[in-house]
Amino acid sequence: MPVRLWKWIAFSLLLAAMSPRADDFSLGAQAGAYGTAYHTRHADYWGLPYIGLNAGRFYIDGTEAGWWLAKDDAFSFAATAWYADTHFDAADGATPALRAVDSRRSTMMAGFSAQYITPWGALAGKIGHDALNNSNGIAANLSWILMKEFGQFTLVPAVGADWWNARQTRYYYGVSRHEADRSQLPTYRPGSTIVPFMLVGFNYDWKNSWNTWGQVTQRFYPHTVTASPLVNRQSVTELTLGVSYSF
C-alpha cells in the first residue's frame, strides 16, 4: 500500500479526534484484492484501517472525506476529497521493458460529489482534479445504484462508468518518448477514456454495534486503455471486505 495512503489515514484519524461531537463514529478494518490492467508480475493485495465519521456537515468514509454543502432525504451535494488507488510500480513490471518505464503514483482527488435518490434507485456522480499534481488530470464518475433490504442484510447492485480526461489517461496508460527510448516500447499518447463497470455490494448489520460489508467490482477497459503497451487485460475484478464497530 502506497505510503501516501497511510498518511491520509493518519490525517483522517487526527481530523476525527479534532471534530465536534459525532452523530455517528465507527472504526474498523478493510482489505481486498485490487484488480489492475497493468502487465505486472504479482497480484495487488491491500489492507488498511476504516474510519467512519458523521459530525454535522463534515464526514469521513474510509478513504474519502468531505463537507456537505446541501443534504436532505432525496438530494446531497458535497465538496470532497478521495484517494484514487490506480498505480503502477515499475519494479513489478512483467518484462524488462516494463521495468524500464516510470512508476505511476496513486493520488488524492479533490472536487464535488452529488447523489439524488428516487423510488427506483439513486443517481450518484463525482468529479475531481488531481490534488497532488501527479497527472494534473480530471476524473469523473457516474453510477446508478439500487438497494434491497432483507432484514439485517442489504444488497447494493450498481452500474456506471468512470471518465478520465486526456491528461489523466496519458499519465497512467501513456508511454512518453523518454520512456520509449529507455524501454524500447512504442510511444503511446491516448486521449480521454470511459471505463464502464458493474458492482455488487452488501452490508450486514449485526444490531450490536458491529457491521460487515463487501463489494465485488468488474471493470471493462476500452481500446484507449487496452492499446497501451503497459496493459495486458481487457477487464479486471476488484474485491473488498470490511468490518467496523460503531461507538
TrEMBL record:
Top-rank taxon: Bacteria
Entry keyword Calcium: no
Any GO BP annotation: peptidoglycan biosynthetic process
Any one cellular-component term (Gene Ontology): cell outer membrane
Organism expressing this protein natively: Erwinia typographi
Sequence intervals crossing the membrane: none
Secretion signal span: 1-22
Name listed for the protein in its UniProt record: MltA-interacting protein MipA
InterPro entries: MipA
Main location, first listed in the record: membrane
Entry keywords, A to Z: Cell outer membrane, Membrane, Signal
Pfam family, one: MipA
Family, per entry: Belongs to the MipA/OmpV family.
Residue stretches in coiled coil: none
